[in-house]
Protein: Tetratricopeptide repeat protein
Amino acid sequence: MPTINKRFLLKMLLALFAFSGALVAAHAVQASRIPAALKRQSDRAAEAGKTDVAIHYLRQYLEFNPQEIESQIKLAELLAQRPPTQRGLTDLLFLYDKILRLDQARFDPRRHDIRRQAFETALRAGKFTDAVTHGQALLQDFPTDAALWDRLAAAQTGLSQHAAARKSYEEAVRCAPDEIAHYQHLAQLVYKNLDDKTGARAVLDRMVLALPQNPNAFLTRARFETLLADEEAAARQFARPIADLHRVFELDPEHAEAALLLAELMQRNRNIAAAHALLRDAVALYPKDLKLVRGLSWLELIRGNVAASITVLEDGLKATPDGFDLMVPLADLLIQQNDTVRTAEILKRLEARKAPPTQVKYLRARMVMREEKWEQAVNLIDALRRDPDVVKLTGLQQQLNLLTAACSSKLGDQSAEEKAYQRVTTGDPKNVTAHVGLGNLYLNQGRFDDAAREFEAALQSPYATGTVVSQWVKLKARLLQTDPQANWARLEAAIGAAVPRFGRGSVEPLLLRGEVLAAQGKLSEAVKLLRQETARRPADGHLWAALALTTADFSGCAAGLVVLDEAQASAGDCADVRLARATLYSREPGRVRPIEALSEHTESWPENEQLRLLSGLVEVYDRLGDAERVVQLLRRIVARQPSNVGVWLKLHERAGAGAAAGAARAAIAKLETESGPSVALCDARTATVESAAAVLPRVLHAFGAAPTRADVCLALARLKALTGDATAAAELTERAFKLEPTRYECAEALVAQHAKAGAADRTAQLLGRLANDPRWAGEPFRRMVGHVLPILPTPVAANLLAQCRKLVERDPNGLPWMAECGVALRLPEAANLVDEATRRPGATSDDWLRKALFASRDNPAAGPEVLAAARAALPVATYFQLVAVYCDTAAGSTFTPDAAGPAERRALAQARLSVKLSRSQAAEGGKVLEAYLAGKDVPAADADWARRNLAMIYAVGGTPEDRVRAMNLIRTVVSTESLSPEELRATASVLTTLGRYLEGPDRRAVLNGAITSLAAAHKATNAPSYLFAMSQLYRALGERRKSRECLQILLNDEKDPSYAFYLRAALDELVEDNYFEAAATFAGRLTAKAGGDFNALASVARFECKAGRPERGLAIAEDYARVADGGSGDYLVRSARVAELLDELSRLPNVRGTPVARRMTDAAVERYTAIVPNRPEAIVGAAGVLAADGRTADAFDRIERLNRYIPARLRASAGLAIVRGRGEITERQAELARKWLDDCLTEEPDSIPLLLNRAEFLALRRDTAGATKGFKEVIKKEPKNVIALNNLAWLLAADPTTADEALRLVAQATREGGLTGELLDTRARVQITLKQHTAAHHDLAEAISHQPTALRWFHVAVLRMSQTPQQPEEALKAFEEAKRRGIEPKDVHPADLSVFKVLDAANVQRR
Structure:
């Protein structure tokens, strides 16, 4: 039987017990070490900022030590650092409760902190019952803690215990009567939850009484009163909040939030100017306050001042570089201005700095829109609209809806466009952009009443600009014309009330009043209104043009041209006057006056004005149907913008199948490559039946089957027609019109399509819609139909014209246009139409002239019979204006008009002279006057008129002998006493023009005669324009004191619309004479009066610089974009103007070379460079200003960096600008600049501007022989080129062997352009060479009276040094003046360098 080994068992048991003890001991040791390790890991993670890791380890630690309060508190602190979520807040609140249960030491201050945190967490989590419990517990120990009472009230409000909450808030106020927030919360409870406005107002009144010196108390009440005013329509004037805000400013004049709110109230009260001033001052004080910056930017935007809005945002980003809230709106605006380069930079910054994704997505959508990928843009915007983060952002939603509407418009989806706009107006009933967008959409659909309602709704907003007013007025006027119960008085009153919405001093409201009067058939009243305003604004060319066109509607084109002669004298030669003249030349029957000359001699005009003139003339020729002239002008335009594909496409479209079309296609292919979409478009336009099938796939590939461009739709329709798909062609034509219903080509194509198809109803419907659309009504409608008629079969054209009758006969030029069309189409009813035009009420001389010409076509004797009838129907002057034109036509070439008495003979001579001069037939005009003077019994006053005009004809372009004859005639003039003001003005104009071609005593006598005439006119009318003209003539005579006296009289009337203009003239004159102390007063007044006008600010900036304060000049120049009126041009134009001004200021003699000049240069270069992608010509300014600052290498580098934007011609101009600069230029750099010029001349060997540039380049490089040859080449090609004549004379002036030839060249230039200061200076230098010192002295004195330049003063010094004996002291004085004005060795003739060095050394020694 087995037995137990007790000994072995005992050993085993002992071993087991020993092992178990060791295990227990090890576990005990390990159990104490693990929690400590977890605690250390949690601490390390917390120190490293790894909150989630720290929480994980700390929670594990607390599993070992769940009763340890310190760690529980630490865990609560870590949980509080996490982003708040509902679950997270609930967990945190549970933890706080656990901590409070673990430790009942209620009087430990730390535990009070825990309960406070639990209290706040409960409020944030919406656990209001827990919050009340904690709050009440805390208040047992802190019964006077106002903050606790306030938060308890918030919890009670959450539980809808409003009575208890009110008591708690009252306790908070009692415990802390100087704490604004408690009053604010109590008032909010009473107002919102208890619906007691009076009680809420009483609470805030108590607050103000308790805190009478606290500005924020008044601000709080102002916000509440603003809220009430928004809800109560009767309180729209915001009197209460504005009073409170004024009190805020009394207590704290620099209160930013008050400024923001008051500016908002000023905007709502439509006092935009006051709002603008407030925000400007506030942003100047707080440039880092993003709300203020955005507020000012937005205000500038609704003022129509996009450039200022951009500048405000740019300045804000300088102060706050990481301001994402500024980057997005800035990028948005830059996209609108086509500045994609800077937009891309901002987008990169946003992505690099991890900006909110919605901002980046928004800008990407805007960039896609800029690339015209409309469907992709709609998808991006739609996705962004549905983003959960965006749904709550009302403002962004509204903007996205507006963008959706814009994209839908481009896609031709009018239903989607309307819905998008309506979403905006539903959320914001006063959104101007949406209402205007709907208005334009309804106009496009022919829903004119709906459109009018939308424009009226837009005008209810204080942010609606003058542009919206104009749209509404023009539409309303058109609707009223067909309303038998039209209330025109209401419309006129609305225009008067809307004047503040236009820019300061804008003439647009007055022009609208004139249009409304004309729409009522009150043309005489419209003429009178505009005439009165021209007396107040004599320098406004736009106003004069409107007056001329309205006068032509009332009395005929000849009468309108008389007005333009006045405009030329008052406003000078400008694009508005020339375009109005071209319009009247084209409208006048017979068309004897040539339009071509109106595009010439604009070299001294700003580039944008030259382009505006050329573009306007394109429209004039297009109205005439003169395709050849249209193409010629477009070629001139595209030569200035060779990288503009749009202009090349326009040229290709108008050129048809001519050589110009081929050149345009080649240029586009060079820009886009042969596979570019625009090349395919060109090929579609010129495709034949044979090639259409091959071109069609290319166009479809480039633009798709449903193009989003009207021009592409029309080209594709043409291809479809050529390939036999007439249905598709018709649909595409309809789509083109839907996409661009205001484009001539689209409307013409659709009208022609309906007419050819015999769709009379559709044609009538379309014509009626267009004729009643204010964008088409009048001349545009007639022009469009006029283009369609010649391409239709005659019977179809006759029907179409008949359908137009009822639509156009209410317009002044409607029936005359019908007559012209009938004559052109040779319709049987043409004679009746022509005759009917003369019988209508308000028939003009044009109607009679048309009838006379029509009658003369088949029977030459019938013309004089018509003229006899016209004589009985028209005033004498009007009749002879008609006769003068008739005599210059082929039909009237043998007609001898009969003038019965002196008045009629004068009227006939005057009319015939006007026609001859307008045809550039000065010699023929002279014969008319000579014949008139040779007549019998010419009254003295009429003879004087004839002599003055004949003298001018002799002098202008005449020889010295002709000028003697002119003066002899002038001396026979008797007096001006019996002349009317208009005749006096004309006399002064003639004498002033004559004075340009005379010199010495003759010039003074003529100009004094002009002053006498102006003085008589001013005495008779008191019109300020005459007085200003007198001041300018006195200045030209060197009589500065009398000039200032005239200006001072003008400045006594601050209500004169031209007051600021006179102030500027006075300031410029005082600065020119170095009267800086007196000029300071004028500068201050000018800044206050016209702070938004560029010319005014430029004058003030020049004054500050010349007065020795260039820093202030720089500040004024840079401030222009912020203070300029909205009508001052777009962002690019304004940037260019500021850059040009800074360029000019940096080159002033007392500024050049200083640190401020360097800052000006850098600022100018920055602006020039920014606009180069959109305005390549800015590279010339950028290179020139760098070169003027001595940074030649930087200038060439800038050209190289921007080379992809710069066409060859502008690169050559930029190179020349560098050579003109003050810095040293290496031979390699000079050769590069010359190569650029030569490359351009290879392409355009006959270009006069390029030949002049090359000659100037050679002159600057001291290659006198080469320059001389170059200028001679120009003169050979263009003998009347004044610049070449003067420059060649200058080169020859210092050589005795060529001095006589130089004098001849100066005389030739004088005949062409008058004796200018430049020509006088050149002639004086020639006379110095010829030792004709007295003559040189007189010429230099005269030239300096024109403009005292540095070179002219240097020539005085040269004159003194060349006299015998020399006059070194006088020479040195003159040289000092030249140095003060900035003379440098590079400016003087090479032959005069030795004199320069001698005088410069003497000048240095004297110092």
Observations:
- Residues 1124-1129 have pLDDT under 50 and may be disordered.
- The two ends are 142 Å apart (CA to CA).
- The chain is about 75% helix and 0% strand.
- Residues 6-47 form the longest helix (42 residues).
